[in-house]
Amino acid sequence: MSDEENRQLSAKEQRRLAFFEDTCAKLQQQGYKMNSLTVGIVKANLFVLLLAIPVVAIGVLLFAWMNPVGNLRPSPVESLVFVVLFLALVVLHELIHGLTWSLFSEHRFKDIEFGFMKEYLTPYCTCLVPLSKGHYILGALMPCLVLGVIPLVLGIVLGSSLLFWTGIVMTLSAGGDILIVVKLLAYKRQEGTKEFLIYDHPTQAGSVIFER
Asked: How far apart are CA 170 and CA 144, in angstroms?
């Protein structure tokens, strides 16, 4: 059992987990088969470290190809702005998850809840209802696109170190989300599967697949 599974849950998390388990049981009664695709925090952090190598290397090469290398060094003011901006973007990252998933859930934003793993100093967002594969993946990757890829590209094009490093850091901050999507895309459906749902786990990183 992972550390995430052993951690002490808050009353809100316990309620959310009970609702999740009840929903899982109902889906199984309806003939769905359940497969867990949760991701451990340690594995996610290792993935981020490995992801950092190509992301930083390719990003720096593209920046240097289009701009003076000296522009990569942020000024003291830009460094201060980055620290303040990062704290805000961490919160916005989770909000974007929720806003995107809410577009496809029955009760919109009422189906979205937020939490904080104090043991890992990690905020998170979860959707309380199962979603289609495409909708789940879109919500999982949207913060990476909006806060990571777009600022990174703009930083390279405009020669802005602030945008560039913000894009790099926020792309890597979405490493756990990317790993979850990689696992989903690598998952092979059972033969004859007609229905396929993704249910975000309420207290762990990752999801649970239901198919029938």
From this structure: 7
Q: Are 41 and 205 in contact (CB under 8 A)?
A: yes
Which single residue is written with the structure tokens 């894009």?
A: 167
> What's the half-sphere exposure (Cβ side, CA atoms, 13 Å) at 114?
14
Q: How far apart are CA 38 and CA 17, in angstroms?
A: 14
Single-letter residue type at 113: E
pLDDT of 133 above 70: yes
In 3D space, the residue among 96, 91, 88 whose CA is nearest the CA of residue 127 turns out to be: 96
How many residues are there in the chain?
A: 212
Q: Which of 102, 107, 122, 94 is nearest to 4 (CA)?
A: 122
Residue 40's alpha-carbon distances to 44, 46, 117, in angstroms, are 6, 10, 13
Predicted TM-score (pTM) of this structure: 0.89
Tell me the pLDDT tens digit for each residue of 10-45: 888 899 999 999 999 999 999 999 999 988 777 888
Picking from 115, 158, 102, the residue whose alpha carbon sits closest to that of residue 11 is 115
Residue 129 identity (one-letter amino acid): V
pLDDT number for residue 1 = 46
